[in-house]
Design a protein that fits this description.
The structure is a single chain. It is built from ten helices and eleven strands. The protein is of the alpha/beta class. The protein folds into two domains: 2-78 and 292-315, no CATH class; 84-283, Rossmann fold (3-Layer(aba) Sandwich). The strands form three sheets. It has a six-stranded mixed β-sheet, sandwiched between helices. Strands 1-2-11 form a three-stranded antiparallel β-sheet. α7 runs parallel beside α8 (249-259). The protein is elongated and about 110 Å long. The chain starts with a strand and ends with a helix.
């Protein structure tokens, strides 16, 4: 909560003064009653005294006054709204380890399917792009609102090769900040990185993530796979061996933290779908300040009406 005109809050200092005036008035009224009749005769002179109820209207009016003063200060609340001008980049690892079957049917197929689910969750006007990487980087689709083109691009991902995460993030950061019209300001942007292995080629991804954080482009990382994941590889003599390919969760966490994003673990297809579903409903939103003056003014009016009705019911008069 913030205030556009905070100086008006000085008016709240009047509340204690009003309370003091009310207490002094009550004491004066009590002194007058005692001068009119002795306490022993009060029960016969005024048999139905309202007791604590006589203070309720005054308390409600005081709260209404406080609410009106706050309304004058023009309070603002931060709310999340859809950012229809955002760019989101899906950066998918396509190294050979994505052929592991610990995430059924394979890590790569699960990633494709989850990407489709993600596109269903993102608002239609948000532009989404796709990048695939192994030791090289391929821009499958620049940010667009054409969901069919994006789905077709995801189908072109084939698993092979090593991993160059830093190079992929560099390309993604450039695309994410590219405005729709030349010369315009960079749009709000975010990157979703899905990978299952440690970066072994190209740039160190953590400094790239720090640069993304400086430019306010968070990177949300998804470490895909289980520690028991393996892929088949052929030895020089032609025999087949199973090579372990556990996900590098530590590296993915470092990238997310350096950029101001978040990291997730997905050990099966269902878990990956859940992560993408969550990101699809949240990542295309931005926090904006909305003035809530009307709420405070309406609350003050309600308090005045309730106080007046209570006074009319108990005392037969509004004040």
């Amino acid at each position: 909560m913030s205030l556009r005109e905070p100086l008006f809050l000085v008016g709240l200092l009047a509340i204690p003064l009003v309370a003091w005036w009310y207490v002094m008035r009550e004491r004066g009224a009590r002194t007058g009653r005692e001068a009119f009749a002795s306490p022993a005769l009060f029960a016969s002179v005024a048999p139905e005294r309202p007791g604590w109820r006589r203070h309720v209207p005054a308390a409600l009016f005081a709260l209404a006054l406080a609410a009106l003063i706050v309304a004058l200060a023009r309070p603002q609340a931060t709310v999340a709204v859809e950012s229809e001008q955002a760019n989101i980049l899906l950066v998918t690892d396509q190294s050979g380890s994505m052929l592991a079957t610990d995430v059924a049917p394979t890590r790569l197929v699960a990633a494709r399917r989850a990407g489709d689910e993600f596109l269903e969750r993102v608002p239609d006007k948000v532009r989404v792009g796709a990048i695939a990487f192994n030791q090289g980087v391929r821009v499958l689709q620049s940010p667009t609102t054409d969901r069919a083109a994006l789905r077709e691009a995801l189908l072109r991902i084939k698993a092979a090769g090593a991993t160059a995460t830093g190079d992929a993030l560099t390309v993604a950061l450039d695309l994410a900040r590219r405005p729709v019209t030349p010369g315009a300001k960079p749009p709000p942007a975010a990157i979703i990185l899905l990978s299952d292995g440690k970066s072994v080629r190209g740039r160190d991804p953590v400094p790239v993530a720090r640069e993304a954080g400086r430019l306010k482009v968070p990177i949300y990382t998804i470490a895909l796979g289980t520690d028991g994941g393996t892929i088949e590889s052929r030895r020089a003599n032609g025999s087949i061996r199973r090579e372990p390919v556990p996900p590098d969760r530590v590296a993915m966490q470092q990238i997310a933290e350096a950029s101001g994003g978040r990291t997730f673990n997905a050990t099966d297809a269902k878990g990956l779908d859940a992560v993408y579903e969550r990101l699809g409903s949240q990542i295309a939103r931005k926090n904006v300040k909305r003035e809530v003056t009307a709420g405070f003014a309406g609350g003050a009016l309600a308090l005045i009406l309730i106080g007046g009705a209570f006074s009319l019911r108990v005392f037969g008069r509004i004040i």
